[in-house]
Design a protein that fits this description.
By secondary structure, this protein is of the alpha/beta class. Helix content is 52%, strand content 13%. It is built from 20 helices and 14 strands.
Length: 513
């Protein structure tokens, strides 16, 4: 009996759970019995033959070249190969004297006519796969244009079946959001962030801690902002799924990843590294630890000696945050008056500037598409610009959505002021990373010169600081000898300040933990 190998194959592991493999094996065994062939070894594979590089198939070819068997029996031609590269390898074996048999096809591979018939059937099988790929690709593009992601959901989302939206995973989505927030703080490298996420319990689909490659991949994936980016082609689409993070947070992470925010981790990891600048040369003050104290120094040779200790920085920051001072009595009176005013009026915050900006961006999208059609820009440049436009539109949508929510909640302005009022307390009790975040969000123009520290409250904090003082002045007019003039605080301006994009971004960042 002639010793031969038996090769059986299905295209996927799911198909391998069916009866196809056993049916192929039975057909090969019947063929072997009828043609005096002994199957000395079986090779079983669960992988598509559309592409070359099947490991079991290549292992079998190597064994045949080494003379471990006189030939091979396969179920059908399309079970052996569906691409010309692998088919050519089978032809080379036949030319070298290796017997090639197909259990269900009555053709003689050694004859010219049989070889020609086999080549034609192989061409038909390859064309079938090529056509199938095109049809699948058409269906995928159709789904992508509808905002549906036709591939496996990235970590943090759930698969809900074919042609259905991916939804946030209630267990892992909050941890994905936390990962973006921690990395955006600039206090974590990918290595230290992996350890922290492992401690928090983030696992991959197999229940294992996420790898460095997985972490870097999802930190660069705009899918979490509602934008679909196909890495293989660079194409971008507006997704219909619910975002996990904001576009602003995603772009902050990309800035940190690109190294434009300084080192993420230093030897001592000083709290205010990179936040304060020399007032004369505008370069960053470099932190140094000497004799148990941390000094922030300007290293520019042309500048006079300029340094300040970290505790002096913290005292100045705390003093600036304490500038928003409102007595409990005035606070109660202010909120009461505001709620009374809110009941009488509709908080109609004008989002017209944002809507106009969004309309302008939509026009730019259309012009960019026209430029691609007219071959003014290439596909790569188109994809890059379209991704940036979609991120910007997503950011505007977030701002308008938050403004709408605040319009429906009159107490938001009070919450806005209350947060500003308690910032100093938050700062005193916070850990170093949170202290840094509060200082960065609440203070601007942070400079040092000749041991003097200069800081200013950010615009949103100035607005919060002004409102109660205006109210206090208005109430104080009742004690004047002049006839009382009822002067209502400008609550409209307060609401506008509280719901401005700058305020919303600052408050969202401060309360996100």
């Amino acid at each position: 009996m002639k010793p031969c190998f038996g090769y059986i194959r299905v295209s996927s592991k799911k198909q391998g759970e069916g009866v196809s493999l056993s049916a192929q094996q039975e057909a090969i065994e019947r063929f072997a019995a009828d043609h005096n062939i002994c199957i000395v070894r079986w090779f079983e594979e669960q992988q598509t033959a559309a592409n070359s590089g099947r490991p079991i198939f290549n292992q079998m070819l190597k064994a045949l070249r080494s003379g471990h068997a006189a030939g091979v029996v396969m179920h059908k031609i399309d079970r052996s190969a569906r691409n010309f590269s692998d088919w050519a390898k089978i032809g080379d074996l036949a030319d070298a004297g290796v017997a090639i048999h197909f259990a269900t096809e009555s053709l003689d591979f050694r004859s010219r006519g049989g070889r020609l018939a086999a080549n034609i059937q192989m061409a038909v099988a390859e064309d079938y796969i090529r056509n199938l790929k095109e049809e699948v690709r058409k269906g995928q593009i159709g789904s992508l244009k509808k905002g549906l992601y036709p591939f496996a959901a990235p970590i943090g989302y759930l698969n809900n079946g074919k042609a259905k939206l991916k939804t946030p995973d209630p267990e892992r989505a909050p941890l994905i959001k936390k990962a973006f927030q921690l990395y955006a703080s600039g206090q974590y490298s990918t290595r230290t962030l992996r350890y922290e996420l492992d401690r928090l319990g983030l696992r991959n689909a197999l229940g294992r801690p996420i790898s460095k490659g997985c972490l870097e991949k999802f930190l660069s994936n705009p899918f979490y902002t509602g934008i679909i980016h196909i890495r293989s082609t660079g194409a971008v689409y507006k997704g219909a799924h619910r975002p996990i993070i904001s576009a602003h947070l995603f772009e902050t992470v990309q800035t940190v990843k690109a190294g434009r925010c300084g080192k993420k981790v230093t030897r001592h990891n000083h709290t205010y590294r990179g936040l304060f600048r020399c007032k004369q040369c505008h370069t960053s003050m470099i932190p140094e630890r000497q004799k148990g104290f941390v000094y922030y120094r300007c290293h520019t040779q042309s500048c006079p000696p300029n340094s300040v200790r970290e505790e002096h920085l913290e005292a100045t920051i705390l003093n600036a945050l304490q500038s928003v001072r409102v007595s409990d009595e005035l606070w109660v009176q202010f909120t009461k008056e505001f709620r009374s005013w809110a009941k009488k009026r509709s908080l109609n915050v004008d989002d017209k500037p944002l809507r106009l900006k969004k309309a302008h961006l939509e026009q730019r999208k259309e012009r960019l598409t026209d430029a691609l059609i007219d071959h003014i820009v290439d596909q790569k440049a188109y994809n890059k610009r379209m991704k940036a436009l979609l991120l910007e539109i997503s950011r505007l949508d977030e701002q308008m959505r938050v403004i709408k929510q605040k319009q429906e909640n009159p107490d938001y302005a009070c919450k806005f002021l209350e947060l500003a009022k308690t910032l100093a307390v938050q700062y005193e009790t916070a850990k170093p990373a949170k202290r840094r975040e509060i200082a960065e969000i609440a203070l601007s123009n942070r400079e040092v010169f000749d041991k003097n520290i200069y800081v200013e409250p950010s615009e949103w904090l100035q607005a919060a600081q002004l409102a109660p003082s205006v109210f206090s002045c208005a109430q104080g007019q009742a004690t004047s000898r002049r006839p009382r003039q009822v002067t209502e605080p400008n609550f409209e301006e307060l609401v506008a300040a509280a719901t401005s994009p700058e305020s919303i971004g600052a408050i969202t960042a401060l309360i996100r933990d």
